[in-house]
Amino acid sequence: MKIKHWDRWLASLKDDDYLKNIEAIKLYLAVMSIYEPDLLDEYMIDDDFHPMISRLKNVTLDVTSARFKELYITESKMNYARDELDGAMIISKTLTKSDIVGNVALPKAQVMSVLTRMNGVTDEGLDNGFEVQVHDIMEDDLYTVTLKRIDDMKYYFGTGWSTMKHSLDLVEGDVLKLYWDQFENKFIVLNFQHKTMGIMIPV
């Protein structure tokens, strides 16, 4: 969880932003109650930390798994939809019959662009198969797939692809679009409206 990122976002809010951001602020506190409980206690004690936190002192935080998932998905989607995504970190592939029947072949140039921002990737690892995570934030499902290189720099997803394609209900002709988040060290499934290089891309 990007606690520091949330801190910067919260500090940037104006007081009149309180109502329209109330759910996101509650989520921020809910996340902290799980991952940074000691820090949350300090925030709740310090009235000067931020007026919005002070207003929520007597609010019961709903951190049940269903509610937490709902808020987490909403805010995660908002974060990726709000930010301009680096097009160089996106892999996009219109799926063919062979991609659906077997392993999915990935565009070489796009994969090589993403590899420049991947940590811990070696030639040997790619030849043997390198595990990466793929996050569908709309359903909060996390997949582990093997990225592998064969036959003169051809790339594909192997192990884990079958589970992922069935879970996402992908069929021939669908566009698989993935964004590499180098800070979270995982792919994000771009199955929601997002911006790339200043252009809004619909689902």
Automatic annotation (TrEMBL):
Keywords: DNA-binding, Nucleus, Transcription, Transcription regulation
GO molecular function: DNA binding
GO cellular component, one term: nucleus
SUPFAM superfamilies in the record: DNA-binding pseudobarrel domain (SSF101936)
Record flagged with keyword DNA-binding: yes
Principal location: nucleus
Residue ranges occupied by any TF-B3 domain in the UniProt entry: 91-195
InterPro entries, A to Z: B3_DNA-bd, B3_domain, DNA-bd_pseudobarrel_sf
Subcellular compartments: Nucleus
Top-rank taxon: Eukaryota
Record has RNA-binding as a keyword: no
PANTHER family noted in UniProt: TF-B3 DOMAIN-CONTAINING PROTEIN, TRANSCRIPTION FACTOR B3-DOMAIN FAMILY-RELATED
Name of the protein in question: TF-B3 domain-containing protein
Originating species: Arabidopsis thaliana (Mouse-ear cress)
Taxonomic path: Eukaryota, Viridiplantae, Streptophyta, Embryophyta, Tracheophyta
